[in-house]
Design brief:
By secondary structure, the chain is an alpha+beta fold. It is built from eleven helices and six strands. Helix 2 crosses helix 3. It starts with a helix and ends in a 9-residue tail after the last strand.
Amino acid sequence: MDAFAQQRPGLLGLAYRLLGSYADAEDVVQEAWLRWSAAEGVDNPAAWLRTVVTRLCLDEVRSARVRREAYVGPWLPEPVHTADGALGPMDTAELRDSLSLGFLLLLDRLSPPERAVFVLREAFALPYDDVAQAVGKSAAACRQLHVRARSKLDGELPAPPRTGRRELLDRLLLAVAAADVPGVTALLAEDAVLVSDGGGVVSAARRPIHGADKVARFLVGIAARVPDGTTMEEREVNGEHCLVVRAGERVTQVLAFTVDGDRVRSIQIVASPGKLSQL
């Protein structure tokens, strides 16, 4: 079982990127372990386990889409604390960026096979022959799926920040705290979007909010209603610095920000209690 233990963090990271749910990713990896424990004569454990996890995720993501049709309000991925390496190595920009909430939300625009191929190629930099083995298609078909996925996301993947990300976010939070709507607006991309996920359990915007001015007014509005005793801290969540909001010891919200150039392009607010247990 040592081979499985060595592969487990990477497998969990792969499953989480494909599903956007840590709980579902753990279930998939547990099922992979059961199949591994019954397997014999595996020459390449890493490739074998990667294939099992990918195929299980392809089945799961199809059923997850059906469940989300009944979800109340916008759906966002489940935030995960990543500083402990639980989701495998993040020693490249691609591995780190592909864990962000904004990136995972973009992946929902892809079909399940497109998502699998895109993640295996872009995040894990696997050659097409290895991708083909994992998804059960030819290398040529995987090339086409990759091209199709990139075309769907063309123009949506943000440019690297031109200024310090943390400095930009600090300025944004100061402007929000000062109720400076013009100041907040100036730090947002013109087509900025805010998505808030309360899961129908807690208060949240039922639809995405589009446009810098509307997003700025929404942020200033919710900041004015923060209850006494609320604390906020920056923590590494999904490979990037996010804002974690607490009421006492309980995490009530996670705010993630996608920075495009020198502006904040998108904001994700996860408030659904069931998605905050990992934090």
